[in-house]
Design a protein that fits this description.
With 260 residues, the chain is an alpha+beta fold. The chain has helices spanning 2-18, 59-65, 108-112, 231-252; strands at 22-26, 36-37, 41-43, 46-49, 54-58, 76-83, 86-89, 95-104, 116-126, 129-138, 148-158, 160-174, 185-190, 196-208, 222-223. It folds into two domains: 2-8 and 226-258; 21-223, Sandwich (Jelly Rolls). The chain is built from four helices and 15 strands. α1 runs antiparallel to α4 (231-252). The chain is globular. The model is unreliable at 1-21 and 211-260 (pLDDT under 50).
Length: 260
């Protein structure tokens, strides 16, 4: 019975050590508002790349990017305007999912007046190969400036997430019909914006598929130690073993009326 108790506690202890739970978060709140950061910026174990640098935005401008309403008091976000994709990765490990709050760095009134269609697209990549795709579409009837949560997941672990926002602009023409929604313009001929990337993002959360010691340096990294650093859990296992043995001995001691 003593051996079984020790064996059970050992299994529980080593199972906890071998079952990692890992998450990374970047909020950009430690950056100076209205500053800029270069491509390759890292926070909380997450790396952000782009053909150009990123702008740090906050206050009323951030509120505009994220839908025209109130934004987090004192919070920051990153925005970018270029031709290409924003890359999100967790150096040293693979990712299972990425979620973020997104907004559009496009002309606010053009969207609200129904003069622009906007897409938010993402590609999950592994070793340069696309393993999953997805995105969101905002047509003229939606008339939304954006602001919401995007989550990218893949059955295959990936090493990079590519994200971009594209839009098609339209010529402004006077509204010629009933105006129940208060819009003063309608959508005319397409003028186009190509594959420009005008994206704002915040509160980036990454779940990893293969934890690595290389990512543990981020202040927001959360991980159960692996086999290379299992001392705390080993102590817990040993204490559990001693408790189990003590309980076993107490249960094995005969009552006074049972003594021979």
């Amino acid at each position: 019975m003593k051996t079984n108790a020790l064996h059970l506690v050992s299994i529980l202890g080593w199972s906890a050590i071998a079952a990692p739970a890992f998450a990374l978060t970047a909020t950009f709140d430690g950056l100076n508002p209205y500053a800029s950061v270069a491509s390759g910026y890292q926070e909380g174990g997450i790396q952000f790349t782009s053909p150009t640098g990123f702008n740090v935005v906050g206050g009323s401008f951030a509120g505009t990017l994220f839908g025209g309403g109130p934004y987090y008091a004192g919070g920051n976000a990153l925005s970018v305007s270029n031709q290409g994709w924003v890359g999100i990765s967790a150096p040293g490990t693979l990712m299972g999912s990425v979620s973020l709050t997104y907004g559009f760095d496009w002309n606010f009134y053009a969207i609200e007046y129904g003069l622009m269609d906007v897409n938010v697209e993402w590609l999950a990549m592994f070793d340069g190969t696309i393993v999953a795709t997805g995105g969101l579409q905002f047509g003229r009837d939606n008339r939304s400036h954006g602001g919401g949560t995007l989550t990218a997941t893949s059955a295959t672990p990936f090493d990079q997430l590519l994200v971009r926002s594209t839009a098609v602009g339209y010529e402004a023409v006077p509204w010629s019909g009933p105006n129940p929604n208060g819009w003063f313009y309608d959508r005319g001929a397409a003028i186009g914006y190509g594959d420009a990337n005008h994206l704002a993002f915040d509160s980036v959360n990454v779940t990893t598929s293969e934890p690595s010691a290389n990512t543990l340096g981020g202040s927001n990294a959360i991980a159960v130690p692996d086999d290379s650093d299992g001392t705390p859990l080993l102590i817990i296992a040993v204490l559990g073993t001693l408790l189990a043995i003590r309980v076993h001995r107490q249960s094995a001691t005969p009552a006074p009326d049972e003594k021979a």
